[in-house]
Amino acid sequence: MILVTGGTGFLGTTLIRHLLASGIPIRATKRPSSTVTADLSNQPLLEWVDADLNNFFELEDAFQDIDQVYHCAAMVSFQPADRKKMLKVNVEGTTHIVNLCITHRARLLHVSSVAALGDPKPGFSETTEDDIWEFDGTQHSYAISKYESEMEVWRGMVEGLDAVIINPSLIIGQQAGENGSGAIFKLLKKGLRYYTTGSAGLVDVEDVAHIAILLMNDRTIKGERFIVSHVNLAYKELFEICAGYLGRPAPSRKATPKMMEIAWRAVKIASWFTGKTPSLTRDTARASFKKQAFSTKKLESKLSYTFKPLNQTLKEICEHL
User: Fold this and answer.
1) What is the pTM (predicted TM-score) of this model?
2) Which residue in 6, 199, 291, 313 has the fewest CB atoms around it within 10 Å?
3) How many domains, in total, are found in the chain?
4) Would residue 317 count as lying in a domain?
5) Does residue 194 fall inside a structural domain?
6) How many C-alpha atoms does 173 have within 13 Å on its Cβ side?
7) pLDDT by position in tens, the chain (length 321)
């Protein structure tokens, strides 16, 4: 039987839909407050269980008869107030998953992030799996939590854990809604006027799910991590493409770091009066200027896989909005 943690999440639901086609029974964890989509609520091969990542005994019950685990569950936040909780959920939760996989001899596919990778070596423009993450005080809390979570998986491997790690870049897709990566497209729909000079790696959620399954089922691959990314793109170019699909003017004003520093502080002050969670934080403001690019040569050397065209993904997202 297969276990999927975070089954109601963006990647989790997509992964489950693909796994159901295999005809193998699936158990998926969720929080009591989570909503299961209609198409996954009455599947004979799918069992839903309420299990908190920080509750070892709930997870232990979910592990009965499990031989494969896709660990997708994680807390994602760039709010300073969430730092302590996010570290507890992501790191301690992964520790429980790793220990239970060792006990039950289950193979683990751990969904990490490119946030757990280091910057490219001098003279190289793209980050690879060999670039070591080094704390320098500039990393945001989410990156720290994903790095420490991944370290738990590496620790497990030393203790005999059969595992493979994937490090997806920014996962996009129409199912994201208006949260996470979907927030970018929501802003464009409203008529975003400014762009920043950063860049990022992008990958469709369907590709991440397909690749996760391929890596899990290839037993010759273990004790390794793989960057899962499709296209490296400047935010300005991304905004221009999407603005065209949305029928909106492309952002034409270049934001400066100083402007963004003022902006996130203003948004924070406004949140004190509105009670709403700030839509812009110090971490997201500073990250918007970071130029990132990721190499997928290692993945390409292991798998023969054709990614979904980026323009198709972007068009689907914009039409869905």
Assistant:
1) 0.92
2) 291
3) 1
4) no
5) no
6) 18
7) 999 999 999 999 999 999 998 888 999 999 988 989 989 998 999 999 999 999 999 999 999 999 999 999 998 888 888 889 999 999 999 999 999 999 999 999 999 999 999 888 777 789 999 998 888 877 888 999 999 999 999 999 999 999 999 999 999 998 876 666 677 777 787 778 888 889 999 999 999 999 999 999 999 999 999 999 999 999 999 999 998 888 888 888 888 888 888 877 887 787 777 777 777 778 778 788 888 999 999 999 999 999 999 999 998 888 887
Residues spanned by the domain of 68: 2-175+201-230+293-308
Q: Is 168 exposed, middle or buried (0-12, 13-18, 19+ CB in 10 A)?
A: buried
Q: How far apart are CA 5 and CA 158, in angstroms?
A: 23
The first and second tokens of residue 250, run together, are 């492309």
Q: Contacts by 215-218 with C-beta closer than 8 Å and gap 24+?
A: 215/109, 215/164, 215/166, 215/302, 215/303, 216/68, 216/70, 216/107, 216/109, 216/164, 218/302
